[in-house]
């Protein structure tokens, strides 16, 4: 593997991590808000609070990792994406800021308010929608580049079916991933009512999520034929992803092995996400920027990879401790601690 | 139009607004974990539940400020790419490493903070819980360390060759450990500790002023002021070294801060004053030899004057006031905290007297003001460079024409966040006063 490929793989792993943990978080916020409106909040409120409180800050770091890391490994992305994304990027930051701080105000300030939960629920769906803009843009055709000047073509972005397809895919995926995780968490907590409600949500969102996946795939053929062809070439990755999806849905339907079911969901998205990413290569921004011409110098690449390995050696045991205390400790989950 | 739509100017203002707001929370984010650790440690060692409760209550308020620190930090991290794409493209090649490591430090801190907060009563041994705050404190200080090396690099870029517009021979470690790093990093970290100690001390002082004589607040005041005295001496000492560093590597910043025009030895330090049209200093307090001593340690050190530099690349001269304000506050904080320590050591003296309590209460906001003016002084003092000697601020900026709108949006955001944060903190502690919590936890009320 070249340094370029190692670099992008590292970053893609963090983005995948963010995709999973943030989806759980975003979806939880939405369900919390939605059930409040329909007076079912008492059923799932505790489950959501118990899981989210200790981990929300960790979620955010995955994202920070990605965007700081990409500037380290691929400094040229700062130039292209930085210039183009001023508005969508700022909107995403503002939404993230509102969400993170109001969550903390409500939870630690022990002060529940309708506005807080609304902000928390609404931003949960808007943030994935605004963040996916980056993936949309990377397909090419949404940016103009003339005499060293980068500009985002808003008309093109808002007028394209593909970009709306990606937004929808993001939202339904968030709801599906989140519900399937919380179903598992509720089963660990032995909370029957919450389990029943969350299982229903997981099943409701399962088919839309896979359906939108297919729709976006088809729309891509018109947007970026080269990328589409690359995806078709590795069709088996997506077939396996579909199989993982089928297994997950079957298990949730049968109320069996919900932990395995959630792992299947993770595998489903892992395969789809890495299949998508790998077939996108070598482009970081089609057709202007590839991983080869935007790459940092070799010394920095080695230093970053070394830092990454050192960092992981420190983080994995700590993350394990966190999970052991809050995710796998039956007494904690059941609310006895 | 009120402002010309100049992306460079607007980007600079927006960067200042975001960083100026972030640094409030970042500063206490660096210092408070240390104070919590000290309080919890004393609580265990002396078996005094007051200190344990102190740690507990500080930690509870702390998470709220962390949340704002995290979201504003995320904002500045992305904004650096959005507002300064050219700078980040160039700098990414050299300082990607410390920025990357900073995120690891956050990660580490975030994980253990989450565990710490939710495990107060979960372990049988109190020591185990105490151990969890240590990685939080280390992570916080480490993140300050890494990010400040980035800022040091902007002042003294090194660790690469620049041949025909191309960066080669990059050495990330040399870039990180540049001549500005030692003084900058230690001054920033010590100043954060000092500020945190004073802010916590100010809270206790306000309770005393309001007539609440509970020993809990007296213990809090004693703990914070003893720590503050140590940090204040350290901050001033390293501030002095920073002056020597500037003399050596950024003489134009020092000369601008001191309105020092002619190169000379036995240079006086100028405090306050105004500058006339033809660069005459009026109404200022002059301390003979002091600038030479600050620069080189001896009165006969020759200090370079402003007239020696190309006027095109000089920073604005108003940074003088910000430098003075920081130094003045530094002296004030040192005096107040040392006075407290001395009074509490002497028999028959009362360190909890009202005038002193008032000064400590003022020290909280003042120390934050010193942080702000220190940063304005050093960042504006680097102008017109974003990377000193290599890239000007104008060259680093975005060309997008929408920065003005973003400036408005972010200003509103920070205003709302700042106000809500204050309101939430007030509610939290008003609704649950110390006396109430002591009773609830069955902590007896020892008679002083
Ligand atoms: C509580 C805050 C505080 C206090 C009391 C002081 N400082 Fe400070 N100072 C800072 C907080 C700060 C800072 C905000 O942390 C700065 C801004 C950038 C930096 O590197 O540190 C800074 C920068 C800074 C610089 C510029 C360094 C550079 O540009 O690289 C100098 C020369 C001093 N300080 C000197 C002093 C002196 C002589 C003080 C005497 C008491 C002093 N400071 C007190
Ligand atoms: C440690 C990492 C830091 C980095 C990488 C950094 C980066 C930058 C950049 C890119 C600019 C714009 C160029 C300029 O106008 O000088 C800037 C300006 C500025 N920064 Fe920093 N900064 C750092 C720390 C801070 C902190 C913590 C503050 C705290 C308030 C701060 C205060 C300012 C101010 C006041 C300006 C505006 C200068 C002007 O208006 O001319 N900086 N900084
Ligand atoms: C350009 C300058 C800066 C950048 C890019 C930056 C970036 C960030 C980011 C991304 C976060 C959130 C991390 C998370 O998600 O957990 C953050 C928080 C934080 N930053 Fe900054 N930062 C800057 C300046 C500073 C400075 C100068 C300091 C120290 C003096 C500092 C100290 C902190 C701390 C301690 C936190 C953790 C939150 C807390 O405990 O309050 N930052 N920063």
UniProtKB/TrEMBL annotation, chain A:
Keyword NADP: no
Alphabetical list of InterPro entries matching this protein: Cyt-d_oxidase_su2 (IPR003317)
Pfam families per record: Cyt_bd_oxida_II
Keyword flag Signal: no
Ranges annotated as spanning the membrane: 6-34, 55-74, 80-105, 117-137, 157-182, 202-222, 234-253, 260-279, 299-322
Keywords: Cell membrane, Membrane, Transmembrane, Transmembrane helix
Protein's cellular compartments: Cell membrane
Top-level taxon of the source organism: Bacteria
Membrane-related topology note: Multi-pass membrane protein
N-terminal signal peptide: none
Coiled coil: none
GO cellular component: plasma membrane
Family the entry assigns: Belongs to the cytochrome ubiquinol oxidase subunit 2 family.
Annotated protein name in UniProt: Cytochrome d ubiquinol oxidase subunit II
Native source organism of the sequence: Salipaludibacillus aurantiacus
Lineage of origin: Bacteria, Bacillati, Bacillota, Bacilli, Bacillales
TrEMBL record, chain B:
A Pfam family that the UniProt record links to this protein: Cyt_bd_oxida_I
Spans through the membrane: 20-42, 62-83, 95-118, 130-154, 185-208, 220-239, 318-343, 355-377, 403-425
Keywords carried by this UniProt record: Cell membrane, Electron transport, Heme, Iron, Membrane, Metal-binding, Transmembrane, Transmembrane helix, Transport
Membrane topology: Multi-pass membrane protein
Matching InterPro entries: Cyt-d_ubiquinol_oxidase_su_1
One BP term from GO: aerobic electron transport chain
GO terms of molecular function: electron transfer activity; heme binding; metal ion binding; oxidoreductase activity, acting on diphenols and related substances as donors, oxygen as acceptor
A single Gene Ontology CC term: plasma membrane
Subcellular location: Cell membrane
Keyword Zinc-finger set for record: no
Predominant cellular place of this UniProt entry's protein: membrane
Taxonomic superkingdom: Bacteria
Keyword Transport: yes
Family affiliation: Belongs to the cytochrome ubiquinol oxidase subunit 1 family.
Protein name: Cytochrome d ubiquinol oxidase subunit I
Species name: Salipaludibacillus aurantiacus
């Amino acid at each position: 593997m070249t340094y370029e490929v190692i670099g992008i793989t590292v970053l893609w792993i963090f983005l995948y991590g963010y995709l999973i943990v943030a989806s759980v978080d975003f979806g939880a916020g939405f369900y919390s808000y939605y059930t409040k409106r329909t007076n079912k909040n008492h059923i799932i409120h505790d489950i959501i609070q118990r899981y989210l409180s200790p981990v929300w800050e960790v979620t955010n770091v995955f994202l920070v990792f990605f965007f700081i890391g990409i500037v380290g490994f691929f400094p040229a992305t700062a130039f292209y994406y930085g210039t183009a994304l001023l508005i969508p990027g700022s909107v995403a930051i503002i939404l993230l800021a509102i969400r993170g701080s109001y969550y903390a105000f409500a939870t630690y300030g022990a002060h529940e308010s309708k506005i807080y939960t609304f902000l928390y629920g609404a931003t949960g769906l808007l943030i994935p929608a605004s963040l996916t803009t980056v993936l949309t843009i990377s397909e090419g055709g949404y940016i103009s580049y003339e005499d060293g000047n980068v500009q985002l073509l808003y008309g093109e972005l808002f007028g394209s079916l593909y970009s709306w397809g990606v937004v929808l895919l993001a939202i339904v995926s968030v709801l599906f991933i989140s519900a399937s995780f919380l179903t598992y968490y509720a089963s660990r907590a032995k909370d029957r009512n919450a389990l029943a409600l969350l299982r229903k949500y997981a099943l409701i969102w399962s088919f839309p999520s896979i359906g939108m996946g297919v729709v976006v795939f088809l729309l891509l053929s018109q947007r970026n034929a080269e990328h589409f062809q690359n995806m078709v070439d590795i069709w088996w990755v997506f077939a396996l992803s579909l199989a993982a999806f089928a297994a997950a849905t079957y298990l949730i339907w049968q109320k069996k092995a919900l932990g395995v079911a959630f792992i299947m969901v993770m595998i489903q998205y892992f395969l789809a996400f890495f299949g998508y990413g790998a077939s996108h290569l070598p482009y970081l921004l089609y057709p202007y920027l590839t991983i080869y011409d935007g790459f940092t110098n070799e010394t920095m690449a080695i230093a970053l990879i070394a830092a990454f390995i050192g960092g992981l050696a420190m983080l994995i045991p700590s993350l394990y401790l966190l999970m052991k205390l809050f995710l796998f400790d039956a007494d904690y989950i059941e609310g006895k601690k | 139009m009120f402002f010309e739509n100049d992306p460079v100017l607007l980007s600079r203002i927006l960067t200042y607004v975001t960083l100026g707001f972030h640094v409030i929370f970042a500063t206490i984010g660096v210092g408070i974990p240390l104070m919590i650790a000290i309080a919890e440690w004393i609580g265990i060692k002396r078996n005094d539940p007051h200190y344990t409760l102190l740690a507990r209550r500080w930690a509870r308020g702390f998470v709220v400020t962390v949340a704002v620190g995290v979201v504003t930090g995320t904002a500045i991290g992305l904004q650096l790419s959005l507002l300064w794409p050219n700078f980040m493209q160039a700098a990414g090649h050299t300082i990607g490493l410390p920025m990357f490591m900073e995120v690891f430090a956050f990660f580490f801190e975030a994980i253990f903070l989450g565990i710490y907060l939710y495990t107060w009563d979960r372990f049988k041994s109190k020591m185990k819980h105490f151990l969890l705050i240590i990685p939080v404190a280390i992570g916080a200080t480490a993140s300050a360390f890494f990010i400040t090396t980035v800022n040091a690099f902007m002042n003294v870029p090194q660790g690469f060759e620049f041949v025909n517009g191309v960066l080669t021979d990059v050495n990330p470690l040399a870039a990180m450990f540049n001549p500005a790093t030692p003084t900058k990093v230690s001054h920033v970290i010590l100043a954060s500790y000092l500020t945190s100690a004073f802010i916590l001390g100010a809270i206790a002082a306000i309770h005393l002023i309001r007539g609440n004589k509970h020993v809990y607040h007296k213990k809090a005041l004693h703990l914070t002021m003893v720590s503050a005295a140590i940090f204040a001496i350290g901050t001033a000492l390293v501030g002095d070294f920073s002056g020597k560093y500037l003399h050596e590597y950024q003489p134009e910043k020092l000369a601008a801060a001191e309105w020092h025009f002619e190169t000379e030895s036995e240079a006086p330090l100028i405090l306050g004053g105004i500058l006339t049209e033809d660069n005459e200093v009026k109404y200022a307090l002059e301390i003979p030899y002091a600038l030479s001593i600050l620069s080189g340690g001896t009165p006969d050190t020759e200090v370079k004057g402003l007239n020696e530099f190309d006027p095109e690349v000089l920073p604005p001269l108003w940074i003088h006031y910000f430098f003075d304000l920081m130094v003045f506050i530094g002296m004030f904080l040192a005096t107040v905290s040392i006075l407290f320590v001395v009074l509490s050591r002497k028999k028959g003296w009362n360190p909890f007297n009202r005038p002193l309590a008032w000064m400590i209460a003022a020290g909280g906001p003042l120390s934050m003001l010193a942080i702000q003016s220190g940063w304005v002084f050093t960042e504006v003092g680097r102008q017109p460079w974003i990377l000193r000697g290599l890239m000007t601020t104008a060259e680093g900026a975005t060309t997008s024409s929408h920065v003005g709108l973003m400036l408005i949006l972010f200003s509103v955001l920070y205003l709302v966040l700042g106000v809500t944060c204050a309101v939430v903190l007030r509610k939290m502690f008003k609704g649950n006063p110390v006396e109430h919590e002591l009773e609830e936890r069955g902590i007896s009320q020892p008679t002083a």
